[in-house]
Amino acid sequence: MVYKTDELHIYEKKVLKAFESLGFSLKPEKIAKKQKMDIKAVMSAAGSLESKNLVKIHRKTDYLIRLNDEGLKYAKEGLPERRLLNYLLEKKSIKMKDLFRESPFEKKDINIGIGWLKKKNCIKIKKGVLEVTKKCEKFIDKDFEDEKLLKELLKKEEIWYSSLTKDLKKGYELLKNRGLLDIKEKTTHVLEITEEGKKLLDEGLEIIEEATQVTHEDLKSGRWKRLKYRPYDIFVEYPKIYPGKTHPLRDIIEEIRKIFISMGFKESRGPIVESAFWNFDSLFQPQDHAAREMQDTFYLKNPKICDLPDEKLVKKVKDVHEHGGSTGSEGWGYKWDISIAKKPVLRTHTTCISARFLFENKPPVKMFSIGRVFRRETITYKHLPEFHQVEGIIASKDVTFRDLLGTLREFYKKLGFEVRFRPAYFPYTYLSTECEIYLPEKGSWIELGGAGMFRPEVLEPLGIKTPVAAFGLGIERLAMIKLGIDDIRMLYRSNIEWLRKNPLVKGIKLS
Ligand code: DAH
Predict the structure, then answer these.
(1) Which Gene3D superfamilies match (predicted)?
(2) Least packed by Cβ within 10 Å: which of 136, 167, 405, 431?
(3) Which of 284, 348, 351, 464 to mutate to test ligand 1, by most ligand atoms within 8 A of the CB atom?
């Protein structure tokens, strides 16, 4: 491909131009200096010039050599074999035994010294007697190859491998194998202009500053007409940007909140640490109910007990449990124990928020709440010990079970799901139902929550005279389906990859 000069970026032109005056083969640092460019800009321009076959980048690997701590010690004190050799020359010959006994060296250094002197053909050992060889004589006043490099390095501190003489290269191998060097690999570059690049230079390269933006001044002065604009390259690689965003589970919670607000519900809250009274007793759940067992509920050591609401309410709840109060029901027929009701628990459902709300607010009301609930579940792909529920009530004199079904159908429809209802049982509702939604991809239905009309045994102690339609729905399972994940734990793992690629969930419009 032939390039026209005006297709080049100004930096590419500047780099090419440098070859005109400095020669055909250049170090990038030299170009940077000459053209007053950043070295990074030179290298990136060189990269694109290379892809256009106008420049060739030669990469050369070199090693910067230094002594490590041990190497430095030997450079200063002398190698163990040198010190041993000097000693041996004095003694002419010595028995191995005596060497260890008499010489001033440490045992370790003697061993190293003997090893290397043998390798360097400087000693022989006959019948336990050490002798310096003839061959070694030339090393009496001459350095071994490794000693030469050791001395050079002591003097210069660091040396490029490429600058070593043949001798020193041998020394390098020895010192490297003895582990006395600190070696750093470095890549250096040389840029060479290609024949095509030269041709382009011959045609003449004009360096005109290109405008990357048009300023107010340019427009006012009319300069914009004369400016040279660099064409946009829409194929250029760009770095991916990951904007900060809310967690997808938060988005879904927000979406649910908006739906209930749009349907005329008002939001309420309640505490996470709740008394068994509000979590169970006020909901006509008998005190020996299986859900209260330790394996299902988290009981707390601290606080030891919870305060209960006013005595009248507590008494009414007790009566209802024991014999049905004035509801006409028989109650559960057991002795209600206030100390059980005072136990603090991590709420196991958000239904306790509805009970509290009904005690404090008079119908007609439409209320929803969203919150975390806690159950002693073993963690699996579809179970968590801590999850979210959305709870709601409609309390009014004419509300019916059909209104409840219609409301839930409408809610799920707004979220994009089709819902169906199955008969169910909860101690606090009659009629009761469980909602299931349809998963078209799986071709099956899954259960998402419960609903029903609060029983008189719940309403009477709270002083509510109208019917109350109530529901409590799980959120995490909905989120799993909406986000297309098959492991609920994904929602609580900070898997940044997954979070990044997850699109922002579009909020629903308030109607
Ligand atoms: N509390 C129930 C649960 O956690 C769900 C539920 C059922 C809530 C019926 C209600 C209701 O308000 O009326 O499984």
Answers:
(1) 1.10.10.2320, 1.10.10.2330, 3.30.1370.240, Bira Bifunctional Protein, Domain 2
(2) 167
(3) 351
What's the CATH number for 249-501?
3.30.930.10
- Tell me which of 282, 401, 471, 476 to substitute to probe ligand 1's pocket, judged by most ligand atoms within 8 Å of the beta carbon: 471
In sequence order, the β-bridge partners of residue 59 are 189
Amino acid type, 240 = K
- The verdict on the CB of residue 371 being under 6 Å from ligand 1 is no
DSSP H or E run through 50: helix 39-51
pLDDT, residue 509, reads 35
Q: Of ligand 1's atoms, which has the minimum distance to the CA of residue 454? A: 13
**472: Cβ below 6 Å to ligand 1?**
yes
Q: Domain 1-79+144-238: which CATH class?
A: mainly alpha
Residue 242 pLDDT = 86
What would the two tokens of residue 191 be? 């840029």
The pLDDT tens digits for 148-168 are 999 999 999 999 999 999 989
Phi/psi-derived region of residue 416, left when phi > 0, alpha when psi is between -120 and 50, beta in every other case: left
448, 477 in Cβ contact below 8 A? yes
pTM: 0.59
By percentage, how much of the chain surpasses pLDDT 90? Answer: 68
